[in-house]
Specification:
Glutaredoxin, about 20% strand, about 45% helix, two-stranded parallel ribbon, alpha+beta, 3 helices, about 70 residues
Amino acid sequence: MYSRITCGLCDEAREVLLAVRHRIPFAYQEVFVDGDEDLEDRYGLRVPVVEVDGDEAFEIAVDPASLEALLTA
């Protein structure tokens, strides 16, 4: 997940990801875009951005059912 240090939407997305991770184990990594010019240019105000298997799957909000479907496909 690409996020910002101070981001309410990122906090919400993180909660969803970690809740789903309790039911369906998966690797989780969070990358903060703050202060990284390339990442700020790429993700800007779109955070949080969640990738699944290298593909952008969610932007701004994470739907738990859709995430579970992607993880079990």
